Amino acid sequence: MSAQCAMCKAVIEGGNETVAEGVNNGITYLMVFPYLLVGILFYFIYRHKKKGKA
User: Which residues of 3-15 are buried (b: 16+ CB within 10 A; e: fewer)?
Assistant: First the structure.
């Protein structure tokens, strides 16, 4: 199994499949928040520009 960093690879190689699944879920969890924050930022910019035109 390949991993992104040396620490992740060491954890995955030493553990079982549930550990690898937990690492993948953690990475997914951490990646969701930047996209949410950028989406919310663009929403407020859009709302602010739309309000200025009216």
Answer: beeeebeeebeee
State whether residue 27 is helix, strand or coil. Answer: helix
Tokens 């620490």 identify what position?
Answer: 7
Residue 21 corresponds to which tokens in the numbers above? Answer: 């699944």
Which residues make Cβ contacts (< 8 Å) with residue 49, sequence separation at least 6?
A: none
Report yes or no: 11 and 19 within 8 Å, Cβ to Cβ.
Answer: yes
Q: What is the pLDDT of residue 4?
A: 61
33-53 residue pLDDT tens = 999 999 999 999 999 999 988
